[in-house]
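quick one, 311 residues, struct below
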Amino acid sequence: IDRAGALVVAPRFEAAAPFSEALAAVALEGKHGYIDLTGQMVLVPEQERAGSLHRSFASGLAAVRAGDSIGFIDRSGKLVIPATFTSAEDFSEGLAFACTERGCGYIDRKGAAATTALLGGTPFKDGIAGVWVGKGKMGGLRRYVLYDAQRGPLTGDYEGVGRLSDGLVAVRLDGRWGYVDRSGRGVVRPRFAAAGEFSEGLAPVSEQAWTCGYVDRSGKVVIPARFRVCHSFSGGRARVEILGPDPKVPQPGFIDRTGALVIEGARATPPFESAEDFVDGVAAVEATGPEGKKRLGYIDAAGHYVWPPTE
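---
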């Protein structure tokens, strides 16, 4: 469907993944491949899929499996990076974290090693990634550093790192989270129990383990901690779980940038019990239908269904 709920590609697939770079992985009559935006099957790779469906394209490449090893094809289906890796993540900004029997690091779009001797790493975002380089003192928490795609490792040694968002990265020191800029300079001192990514100028944080709110880029709390779970903003809406009388029963909703609850799952028609973040103006939700069956639908930013819940 499109964001207005109009059917664009008819439901004829056994399984389908979201579109990425104008292609979507699908399963159709036992065949695994990719469709274009019109729903036509335009690519059926010769190689095996590296998952339940073929992996999404990113930076023009998609991971495939040959036996027990992973390589990458381009949009024509040509194997442009030989299957020599024991594991590999998707590309981001031209780099992908991959491992061989000799070790792990990032590779470029030609399959050449861009970094080595890493134990783990996040996808690059605006040229910055967080990488796991070892264990802390006495074999304790993992040790992370920020890695600049152009300059290499940056100054700083952390217990955890997030992803660069709005120019800031969440980092953990001595069990608390704060934010540094893309050069590693401290911006918001570590004082939070948890800290998420900035989006639209705000980031979800928890000062205590059981409630969360939102801060601005200076670290000032602008939406007080009165929610059970908080997610990043998208399209002026942030998904939250409302604190109800029974903490074991989630009550999903969406707030605006003032913190006002603008969509409440329990008040929707029909009510929904869970939701995902907004993407391109719509959010997927789950409601309970007749006989207790779970049904999936989509709502718009006003909380109206553009696709009523169906099985």
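The longest strand covers residues 221-234.
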